From TrEMBL:
<feature type="transmembrane region" description="Helical">
    <location>
        <begin position="25"/>
        <end position="50"/>
    </location>
</feature>
<dbReference type="GO" id="GO:0005886">
    <property type="term" value="C:plasma membrane"/>
</dbReference>
<keyword id="KW-1133">Transmembrane helix</keyword>
<dbReference type="GO" id="GO:0008519">
    <property type="term" value="F:ammonium channel activity"/>
</dbReference>
<dbReference type="InterPro" id="IPR024041">
    <property type="entry name" value="NH4_transpt_AmtB-like_dom"/>
</dbReference>
<comment type="similarity">
    <text>Belongs to the ammonia transporter channel (TC 1.A.11.2) family.</text>
</comment>
<keyword id="KW-0812">Transmembrane</keyword>
<feature type="domain" description="Ammonium transporter AmtB-like">
    <location>
        <begin position="7"/>
        <end position="72"/>
    </location>
</feature>
<dbReference type="InterPro" id="IPR029020">
    <property type="entry name" value="Ammonium/urea_transptr"/>
</dbReference>
<dbReference type="Pfam" id="PF00909">
    <property type="entry name" value="Ammonium_transp"/>
</dbReference>
<dbReference type="InterPro" id="IPR001905">
    <property type="entry name" value="Ammonium_transpt"/>
</dbReference>
<protein>
    <recommendedName>
        <fullName>Ammonium transporter AmtB-like domain-containing protein</fullName>
    </recommendedName>
</protein>
<keyword id="KW-0472">Membrane</keyword>
Length: 93
């Protein structure tokens, strides 16, 4: 499981360290590839069950109407000064 290089000082201190560094680079590349593969499979399975993207209409309306909240409400302590839903203004929230 562990592929160490005996009597190695490390990748940047000379000797056989470059071999160890290359083994670690191959291992990291494998993990990155594995994560991409498994995540893609999971997303494909989820896509069969539910849509991964909002409809064009929901995208046009925006987060406020779709979720009932505003992203990055900066009007102090997370509260917004005015509420805009579906293109119209409402009372303060």
């Amino acid at each position: 499981m562990f592929l160490t290089v005996p009597n190695s000082k490390g990748a940047f201190y000379g000797g056989k360290g470059v071999v160890q560094f290359l083994k670690q680079l191959v291992g990291a590349s494998f993990i990155i590839g594995w994560n991409v593969l498994v995540t893609s499979i999971i997303l494909l399975v989820i896509r069969v069950l539910i849509p991964l993207r909002m409809s064009e209409e929901e995208l046009r309306i925006g987060d406020d109407a779709a979720h009932g909240e505003e992203a990055y409400a900066l009007a102090g302590q997370g509260k917004r000064e005015r509420s805009i839903r579906n293109g119209g203004e409402h009372d303060n929230v």
